[in-house]
Fold this sequence. Notes:
The chain has a single domain, classed as B-lactam Antibiotic, Isopenicillin N Synthase, Chain (Jelly Rolls), CATH 2.60.120. The chain has a three-stranded antiparallel beta sheet with strand order 1-2-3, covered by helices on one side. The longest helix is centred in the last third of the chain and has 26 residues, at about 140-165. The model is unreliable at about 70-85 (pLDDT under 50). The protein contains seven helices and three strands, in the order ααααβαβαβα. By secondary structure, it is mainly α.
Amino acid sequence: xxxxxxxxxxxSWISNLxxxxxxxxxxxxxxxxxxxxxxxxxxxxxxxxxxxxxxQLAPHPPSGTHHRGALPEVWPVHWPQQLPGYSAPGVxxxxxxxxxxxELAKNRIKAPDVKExxxxxxxxxxxxxxxxxxxxxxPGFKETCLDFFWLLYEAELTIWGAMALGFKLPEDxxxxxxxxxxxxxxxxxxPSVAAEDLAKETITRIGAHSDFx
Length: 213
């Protein structure tokens, strides 16, 4: 689906509300430059190519509500949940309607999610501060991530305007509720795995899960 950012969202785009049934769309002609997208993919690869020791210098905290940083390879038994930052392979386990911590632990051991991640957001977030690598480990990492985060936020506001018009509301209706971005930018890496392990369901990539918001 095309979304021109040079003009106000067009009525032809608004009239095509197939995304209301599907739940998501692929957008083209948005405001995020192609070179910026390529830049963040290059930087993401450089980050995940770092040694585990270096990536864990930006650790994801133990709380599942603090989406920043990276997690260690082995989940410490005294950590009830995951935290923001870097997350190593097998540390995370996406679940579907499992709320008991003992059941969550069993589910994680049974078939861990084999992926790595790093999360960050706006610097001014007092409740969820960013967790960055120490200076000198990966020059430009922090600046590039923050630049891309704000580029996506500008595109987000354009989409909110289009959605409001689609619901026959004032264009700034949803924007007024998103003046302070509380979402996060997440870099993901899925290491190579054996096809037979996926077939036997001893590991997963990302399982069925529930998002609450």
